[in-house]
Amino acid sequence: MEDLTASEITNLIASFSTNTMASVVTSDLLKKAESDDVRSMLELGVQIAKAEVKVLSIS
Predict the structure, then answer these.
(1) Distance CA 40, CA 44 (A)
(2) What is the pTM of this model?
(3) CB neighbours (10 Å) of residue 19?
(4) Cβ distance 56 to 19 under 8 Å?
(5) 42, 26 in Cβ contact below 8 A?
(6) pLDDT tens track for 2-53
(7) Which long-range contacts link 17-21 to residues 24+ away (Cβ below 8 Å)?
(8) Whole-number pLDDT of residue 30
């Protein structure tokens, strides 16, 4: 396995932070959603963000 450059590490950290924040904020919005359509989109957003965090955590 090759060593990561500083730029690559920075991108991984930024992606992890962004997706973690998106997961938390979207989960909070999901609690307040009144429309089924909005709820469905927010649930998808949470799933995607959590999946990305999981992938980045394994790396």
Answers:
(1) 6
(2) 0.78
(3) 19
(4) yes
(5) yes
(6) 899 999 999 999 999 999 999 999 999 999 999 999 999 999 999 999 999 9
(7) 19/49, 19/50, 19/52, 19/53, 19/56, 20/49, 20/53
(8) 94
